[in-house]
Amino acid sequence: MGSIEMGLALRMWIAGLLLLTHLVHGALCWGDDGHYAVCKIAQGYFEEETVVAVKKFLPASADGELAAVCSWPDEIKRLPQWRWTAALHFADTPDYKCNYDYSRDCAEDWCVTGAIFNYTNQLMSASEDSLSIVPYNLTEALMFLSHFMGDIHQPLHEGFLGDLGGNRVKVSWYNQETNLHRVWDDMIIESALEKYYNSSLSIMIHALEDKLKYGWSNDVRSWGSCQRNETACPNPYASESIDLACKYAYKDATAGTTLGDDYFLSRLLIVEKRIAQGGIRLAATLNRIFSSKPKLATA
Ligand SMILES: *[C@@H]1O[C@H](CO)[C@@H](O)[C@H](O)[C@H]1NC(C)=O
Ligand SMILES: *[C@@H]1O[C@H](CO)[C@@H](O)[C@H](O)[C@H]1NC(C)=O
Ligand SMILES: *[C@@H]1O[C@H](CO)[C@@H](O)[C@H](O)[C@H]1NC(C)=O
Ligand SMILES: *[C@@H]1O[C@H](CO)[C@@H](O)[C@H](O)[C@H]1NC(C)=O
């Protein structure tokens, strides 16, 4: 076998393995595509110091590409030593409460918002002094922060506690049985890829990048900024998500419903905007973290 076929065989094998893992576990967060898109879009908005710092902290397996490791927290969260991280992927609200409240929904900082503050602070501590005395693993901090910035923008990561953010709401997506959470993690994106983007995630990402430049352009600056001078400001993102969950995700999608074109076409716009906002806000947060650390760029 030539090296090209070898490479192909290996990739098919890995793809098969990933598919199997996916089928066995099911997906519980923006699927891999959603996370990849958020991080890929963010990369386009990195300032110079951020490019350098991110490269420094990425694991070798990322091959210099943040997007390549943005699903890592999903891959590890069922391993015994990482099970404690599972609750950091979301911030559910009491049933039928369409607002979010940090002290109520993020007790002891134990939710996606608290985790975003936590990993931002760890990365901030990096450059203040010498890297060697930082007691955290900043590779993990970067991968967690990038992943959770995606999760917080998936409306059903701020869903209701009683149905586990839509995981217990059984619905059909066209003729496929699934649950509402997965519809928002994966199905809407997958259907969009097939219908509009020739099954190519990179074509979809390019379309979102164009929308950011020519469509949403007036809003993009405000998406990235924080009120007061915070480095990270995830609370408003969580408030937006539960509001969207009530207005769009849960609406007309009670258990047993078959969701089709009406739901897909009206919700796709929300999903695309949330992915784009996640990317812009991840880039803005990392830029704020690393712009104050010129030392890192030269270390
Ligand atoms: C913050 O991160 C550290 C290191 O991963 C972890 O031990 C701690 O539990 C985290 N706390 C929160 C609130 O996420
Ligand atoms: C940091 O975390 C990554 C991912 O878990 C791991 O591969 C690496 O060995 C860790 N580095 C140190 C110094 O512990
Ligand atoms: C769509 O994808 C297929 C397979 O990758 C490719 O052969 C075809 O040229 C693509 N069509 C367009 C319009 O890009
Ligand atoms: C934000 O930071 C600037 C410059 O450090 C400072 O002048 C300003 O007062 C700060 N604003 C708030 C609301 O903290």
UniProtKB/TrEMBL annotation:
UniProt-listed Enzyme Commission number(s): 3.1.30.1
Reaction(s) catalysed (UniProt annotation): Endonucleolytic cleavage to 5'-phosphomononucleotide and 5'-phosphooligonucleotide end-products
Highest taxon above the source species: Eukaryota
Any GO MF annotation of the entry: metal ion binding
Signal peptide residue numbers: 1-26
Record keywords: Disulfide bond, Endonuclease, Glycoprotein, Hydrolase, Metal-binding, Nuclease, Signal
Nuclease found in the keyword field: yes
GO BP of this protein: DNA catabolic process
Pfam annotation, one family: S1-P1_nuclease
Recorded coiled-coil stretches: none
Family: Belongs to the nuclease type I family.
Subunit structure, as described in the record: Monomer.
Name assigned to this protein: Aspergillus nuclease S1
Organism (species): Eruca vesicaria subsp. sativa (Garden rocket)
